Amino acid sequence: MVFTTPLIRALRRHYPDSHITYLVEPLAAPIVTGNPHLDEVIVVPRRAGLARWKDDWSWAAQLRAARFDVAIDLHGGPRAAWLVWASRAPMRIGYRITGRTWMYTHVVPRLDGLAPRHSVCNQWDLLRPLGIGECDPARDAVEMAEDPDADTRIARRLGEAGIRPDNPLIVLHVSAGNPFRRWPPESFAELVSELARRDPTRRFMLTSGPSDASAAQAIVARIAAQLGPGVTVASHGQFDVPELRSLAARAAVYIGGDSGPLHIAATTRVPIVAIFGPTLAERSMPWRDPQWFAEAIDGGALPCRPCHQRTCAPGDFRCLTGVSADRVVAAVERALQKRTMRV
Q1: How many angstroms separate the CA atoms of 33 and 259, rounded?
Q2: The whole model's pTM is what?
Q3: Strands (DSSP E) along 208-331, which ranges?
Q4: In the list 80, 191, 256, 334, which could disulfide-bond 75, CB 3.0-4.6 Å?
Q5: Domain at 2-130, CATH homologous superfamily
């Protein structure tokens, strides 16, 4: 979802007088709410069974009534394809996907998910039928609007955790959508322990997905056992999407694997250290102006990397376990140094 935001900016630049609407389901809506290049955000509920069919027929009628000239399917899934087709827009653009190609008037190839080409460039292919030129992260970076209410909530939570504005804050996202992208908890614990030893004024906030809340707490407990109570390492359970952005924007550095929060952090100027396992930095590195620090750490060239993340062929997740905490520590220190030079 974040990777589609550069396209919104490009569409506005190419069609400055157009009315641009973004259709989105509730979970991802905060990413585009407040986007300065959009005129309208339509949030379509994600319900199941008969309720979903009723929703889709109702929205199809509304989309037809709006008489859109162009409809672009940025997702490629069955629901998105059907709503694009149901809009009856004279120009309907989508990927060449078996069983859905007939729904579009203009079709573009969709590369294999393992191709070493950035996901933003793959999305950008959908703009070719409109004559829009090449993508450039310096000009069209990912973006997400600030949320003042989320800023207030984050400031309060950091204060409750004993983290002051003058403390260097290091944010670590310790989970991922699947185990194939999850750096080991003991590696996170070793990383934080070493960073804290190097500078006792540093403070740490661990974030995680719903399924990994206990893992985050376990990492905090492990660090406390190693360093004692003198180091502030907090985990606040769940943050919503605007809060994640606000937290990243306040950080001295963000550390995390290839997951949604990494790319939410990329919409800010925070220095980023990204840990890649089976995925490639060429495909999933933060897409933003190169002047803002971002460094990838990965397991190197392996015959099984990249993979489709269904089964670990060697069985030991070596693309992740092969990333040492020392390498990440060194990258974090470079990120902090770069940030200090800018300040």
Answers
A1: 20
A2: 0.93
A3: 233-235, 253-257, 272-276, 294-298
A4: 80
A5: Glycogen Phosphorylase B; (3.40.50.2000)
